[in-house]
Amino acid sequence: MSVAALSVALLTAGPAQVAVAQDTPAGAPAVPTARTEAAPGVPAERLIVGYKSAAAEAKSDRAAADDAQAKGKEAGEDVDFRRRLGTGAALVELGGEAGTADVADVVAEYSADPQVAYVVPDRLNKPLATPNDTEYTKQWDLFETTAGMRVPGAWDLATGSGVTVAVIDTGYVTHSDLAANIVGGYDFISDTAVSVDGNGRDSNPADPGDWYAAGECGQAAGSDSSWHGTHVAGTIAAATGNGKGVAGIAYNAKISPVRVLGKCGGYDSDIIDAITWASGGTVSGVPANANVAKVINMSLGGGGACSTATQSAINGAVNRGTTVVVAAGNENQNAANSSPANCGNVITVAATNRAGSRASYSNYGTVVDIAAPGGETRTGTANGILSTLNSGTRAPSTENYASYQGTSMATPHVAGLAALMKSANSGLTPAQIESAIKTNARPLPGTCSGGCGAGLADAAATVQAVKGGTSTGSTYGSTTAVSVPDNGSAVESPITVAGRSGNAPSALQVGVDITHTYRGDLVVDLVAPDGSVYRLKSASSSDSADDVRTTYTVNASAEAANGTWKLRVQDTASADTGRINSWKLTF
To answer: Worst-scoring range by mean pLDDT, 218-227, 236-245, 452-461?
Structure first.
């Protein structure tokens, strides 16, 4: 099949969401604008309502139901409490005939209530891939010198053993090259019109297909089933060394398929519960998760700001120790306009092509953390990302392999890398995983207009950095650029180290990347958490070369490891300026 790129700008375009701050005083006015659509031109049928913790509605379903009826009466609409989400928020349903103005009236009633922390539409999300059905055997994205992710160099150190990755997507269609690594998941699609399988939520995450006819899903043309979740899962953990098919990045990791996307996409409320459950949280009416994931892959998204409801679920997952990896989006626009790419506490992934440049479709911008191979089939299907699939155009048929392109394909590369890291060093926190991936990235071999984060993810360098022996070998870094003024005051770039025991090592590695047109002007110091200063570089009037790109070794054994370390840089002479691009500490 050949299908145009699926848009991620599907949740709505328009005014900002209603979100009242958690500490909003009683009687404070609510935000006056409201997002009222689940997708462009489609009024929301459900709302996600977060109550302040002290409110009765935050604890009692009956109170939330009574409140929904009262709000509906005031607005002149039918409003019913549907269920409690895993984050504690309430999902309420509006009458099927409610138009945009009607939804706005209900939103206004909730937002005027001082006991309501936020109210947002239950938005529709879409897979972020552009599929084609041509099969190739070459996985350039893993090993090719130019723009591959250098995965084979990591396999001597880790293969993903002991780590479960939750693929929150379309579910899983049986494939012999994946079957050995599949563990129990869940189908979180509650709307039967979306689920296609004839029922609501259950323990069977099988993908029945997500095809739609012309004129459905807001699309002029129809689409065959994508088997999107199975393609994503194969990139992460397809069986390797079994004499057939493709190799997975973390091929000894386990995949827990968590189904949230069906016909026309999937709703925020289902995704929120999936994030909560996958990471070990409790969701009402859903059995406890026996396969808690330490990594979540979400190759999905929609337009608009990250809703407070979604951010709450992500924060909960990260606080439980789960790393959340998300796609930047496929619109060739700033990823700040795409959710969950613009959420906090996630690793947002842009896509690169076989030449190592930003793929033409990939979103970009300051919210992007890292880039990874996503393919670009307009230059030939061999330049896509090959993975596990199914030949069925509607219902499942025979298993096969095919090359897709998209930030959906880039994201599982980073999720697979996160699984390798967690396998190599089980003590890593989500923040440490993100920091190490960014700090050990390599510059893009090609170009990226708009910003592709720290560069191209490098599996070998990253896993090596976190592997370690008796120490963890963990790397902590900063990629936030800091300008160094000409002949001016010193500037500082901080890195916070947490979760370590004891003191820093006697051979602390300090990697520095500073751009400057006369490096002899610079004085560079490492400042320990207690304020102690370690001179890394002194000024020298005879050193006229450009830039400081090197690694210093410091005996920091007298310093506590935890705390905020700073790189301090000062330009001591006139006529040249510079910039701290990045720096890192390796313990």
So the answer is: 236-245
Q: Is the pTM of this model over 0.90?
A: no
The full DSSP string for 538-584 is ---TT-----EEEEEEE--TTSBSSEEEEEEEEE-SSS--EEEEEEE
Domains and CATH numbers, the chain: 18-121 (3.30.70), 126-467 (3.40.50.200), 475-586 (2.60.120.260)
What residues act catalytically? 169, 228, 408
Q: Which residues pair with 456 in a beta bridge?
A: 371, 442
Q: Which structure tokens are listed for 450? A: 């708009």
- Written as six digits, the tokens of 154 are 């990591």
Encode burial over 163-179: b for 16+ CB neighbours within 10 A, e otherwise. bbbbbbbbbbbebebbe
Question: For residue 89, what is the DSSP state?
Answer: P
Most confident option among 18-22, 76-80, 247-251, 293-297: 293-297
The bridge status of strand 164-169 relative to strand 295-298 is parallel
Identify each DSSP E strand in 358-490 by its residue range: 370-373, 385-390, 399-405, 475-478, 482-484
pLDDT at 35: 65
How far apart CA 81 and CA 67 sit, in angstroms, is 8
Answer whether residue 20 shows pLDDT above 50: no
Instruction: List Cα–Cα distances, 226 to 261, 396, 428, in angstroms.
Output: 11, 10, 34
Token pair in block for residue 338 = 């795409």
